[in-house]
Design a protein that fits this description.
- α2 runs antiparallel to α5 and α4 crosses α5.
- By secondary structure, this protein is mainly alpha-helical.
- It is globular and about 50 Å long.
Amino acid sequence: MPHSVLILMIALALFAVAMFVSEAMVVSAGTGIVLVSVFVSFLGYGLYWIVMAATRFTHRFLPTVSCIMACGSILTIMMVAIFVLLRPVAGNQVAALIAWLVLIWSVPVKGHIIARAINQHWYTGIAIALTIYIAQRLAYDALTATSAA
């Protein structure tokens, strides 16, 4: 992936589309939840930057975050499409399970990207991506619990 602000802008546009699609098609929970999702996503990008800074690969941050953002956005759109299309046929539980599996697939995808960015084995990348996913999930749960109360 080249070092390109244009590619980052395309990834940001894809991210915006993914947020819009997920809000419009699945949640419809209001602007507050969407803002929490955006915040938690950018928290994850910040954590990836910390990993890259710790390993002295910050010069690769722009292409790395562009890849992570674009791949995550595509998988989010795919997750929403699977959920919406399967829900009438298979029911809520099966559709939600398959959509969740697509979401979980994003962890090894992002792990592979970060591993290549910091010149590490893909196991290391998956461990990093899983740690960041858990941190994001905890942040999301904490922020939505306080907004629901």
